[in-house]
């Protein structure tokens, strides 16, 4: 199903009142895992606006919505219970990727107020080195190059450069970004990135009961890196989280998380260090007797769009499989 078709369905289902009717009887059973990246006002950002899941007010409404209509669970609940347990439930797990500062400044207070446990997959190198992520750097260069141009054109330029980045190997990435900076006449981004949390913020969140998972050291698309690099990315990111936060890190999420971003070999390597791993391409996880349940491909749905689209996602997640 295309995103455009999905958005049209969401609008029509809301108009006809189908979502509310279906929620009364329950259209699905299993574990729905939601993925967020950034929360806030994307229009004020000079970096990648595409990683904004929603704004503050809508995020609060979304959390209130799932708390009212579903069983909100923690990652510990997921790890403790067998797959068959989830085929009888409508459970929702909330997750965040990367380690953006608005996770602490905006999302964390809302989660605390509503008593919702969330799982944060943190890229340890972003916290340690304050380095800019490649997607944020590309967006920054394009916004500088096309300053004053219509926003749609800037977005198209960013998408074009990002899609070409996806086609190259990790070993070519620095040269590619250097060329983009030269062509944009901006050069590379200099200095520390202002968008990441720090360890003090993360420790406060851990003390309040939030959970944490590994998300590599440097956020490479692992299937495009040498297999000899996998061990470092899988273990060092986890080690830093455990060292700084005094937590036991048992779960991992594959950077980007599309089906081509992990493989059977990578899943086997990940299983040596984690109890489970999460992808990010939609769907609902069901118990073994009811459908799909792969402990090293626990599927997540990236949250984007207006509230009606969120209601559609949480009411009909089986359509996203």
UniProtKB/TrEMBL annotation:
InterPro entries: Glyco_hydro/deAcase_b/a-brl, NODB_dom, Polysacch_Deacetylase
A GO BP entry: carbohydrate metabolic process
Domain NodB homology: 90-321
A GO cellular component entry from the record: extracellular region
Xref: SUPFAM superfamilies: Glycoside hydrolase/deacetylase
Bilayer-crossing regions: none
Keywords: Signal
A molecular-function term among this protein's GO annotations: hydrolase activity, acting on carbon-nitrogen (but not peptide) bonds
Pfam family, one: Polysacc_deac_1
Compartments (UniProt record): Secreted
Protein name: NodB homology domain-containing protein
Lineage, top ranks: Bacteria, Pseudomonadati, Planctomycetota, Planctomycetia, Pirellulales
């Amino acid at each position: 199903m295309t995103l455009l078709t999905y958005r049209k369905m969401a609008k029509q289902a809301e108009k006809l009142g189908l979502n509310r009717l279906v929620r009364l009887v329950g259209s699905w059973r299993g574990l729905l895992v939601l993925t967020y990246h950034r929360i806030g006002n994307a229009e004020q950002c000079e970096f990648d606006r595409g990683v904004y899941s929603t704004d503050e007010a809508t995020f609060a409404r979304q959390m209130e919505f799932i708390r009212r209509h579903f069983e909100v669970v923690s990652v510990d609940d997921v790890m403790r219970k067998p797959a068959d347990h989830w085929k009888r439930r409508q459970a929702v797990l909330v997750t965040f990727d990367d380690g953006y500062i608005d996770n602490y400044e905006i999302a964390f207070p809302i989660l605390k107020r509503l008593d919702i446990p969330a799982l944060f997959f943190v890229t340890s190198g972003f916290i340690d080195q304050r380095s800019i992520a490649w997607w944020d750097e590309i967006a920054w260069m394009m916004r500088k190059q096309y300053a004053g141009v219509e926003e749609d054109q800037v977005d198209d330029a960013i998408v074009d450069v990002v899609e070409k980045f996806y086609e190259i190997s990790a070993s070519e990435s620095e040269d590619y970004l250097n060329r983009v900076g030269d062509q944009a006449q901006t050069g590379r981004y200099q200095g520390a990135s202002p968008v990441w949390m720090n360890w003090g913020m993360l420790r406060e969140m851990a003390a309040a009961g939030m959970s944490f998972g590994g998300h590599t050291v440097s956020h490479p698309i692992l299937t495009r890196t040498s297999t000899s690099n996998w061990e470092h990315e899988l273990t060092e990111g986890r080690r830093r989280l455990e060292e700084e936060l005094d937590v036991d890190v048992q779960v991992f999420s594959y950077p980007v998380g599309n089906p081509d971003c992990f493989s059977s070999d990578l899943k086997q390597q990940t299983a040596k260090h984690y109890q489970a791993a999460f992808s990010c391409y939609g769907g609902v996880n069901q118990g073994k007797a009811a459908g799909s349940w792969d402990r090293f491909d626990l599927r997540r749905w990236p949250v984007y769009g207006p509230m009606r689209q969120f209601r559609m996602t949480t009411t009909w997640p089986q359509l996203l499989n």
